[in-house]
Amino acid sequence: MRRCGLGILLLGCAAPVFAQNAPLSASGLSRWKLSLPVDANGDGKADEVANLRGYANPPWFHATPEGLIFRAHAGGARTSGSTAYARSELREMTAAGRPAAWDCLQDTRSLSLEQTLLATTTAKPEVTLGQIHDARSDNLMLKYSGPADANGRTDSGRIELLWNDAAQREVLDAAYTLGQPMRVTIAADHGTVRVAYRNLVSGAEKQLAAHLAPAGIAGACYFKAGVYIQACSKLGSDGLPNVVCAKKGWAEARYDAPEAYAEVLIRQIDLN
After folding, report:
1. Cα(66)–Cα(24) distance, rounded to whole angstroms?
2. Domain range for 89
3. Is residue 218 part of a domain?
4. Range 146-167 burial, b when 16+ CB lie within 10 A, else e
5. Which CATH number fits the domain that encloses residue 223?
6. H or E element: which one contains 235?
7. N or C: which end of the chain has fewer CB within 10 A?
8. pTM
9. 12-26, 69-83, 164-178, 190-204 — which is least confidently predicted?
10. Does the pLDDT at position 65 exceed 90?
């Protein structure tokens, strides 16, 4: 494996050449488990799927000729009673099938994605497209934020990197239009995270280093990818109130309808 700079795998010099690879299928997700925005067994929590080989649950997760679709809606089931938001999101696992847990400040890990944000909610058009998470919260997020008058299909917004529980942030792409594929590498090395971003249509690109604050880290870290919408409805698709969402106290126009959704296509994913 070739590395650049501070021993970090960077998109511009050593990231996988995704264009030469076949689109991602569920069989290529052996080191991930999936959280869905549905509660099929009625236990009050979002369903999780550990073995994704051959798995599909459209429209929330399914294969297309271009790659894998991930969709989450504002009224979807949530992973716990403390979160307002639904997700169709991958969580990093080990080769042995256990939850990955690496040292945020000592280990070296990288995640590379080729993905396209296809749709967003409209009242609050915000979507997280990748994370480094620890035992308590997100240390680093790749996030899209759309315009106030979003239609959710053809908007232009910004792609940002947020880290240290969103205390720090920087814009990676100030004019990202829905439907444009992007390549992103997130490479962590001893508490420094180098991120390389490129919009494959506009050519916009940026590289930056984010330094994780030791005081803000709780336990071990792991990667997440897919759709984690930052929008919700006061009433879930199950007809029950989303109390956490209602407590946010937004203006009514900021609450989405339960069926409003965000969707991302992941063409390639590479974990090291």
Report:
1. 8
2. 27-271
3. yes
4. beeebebeebebebbbbbbbee
5. 2.60.120.200
6. none
7. N
8. 0.91
9. 12-26
10. yes
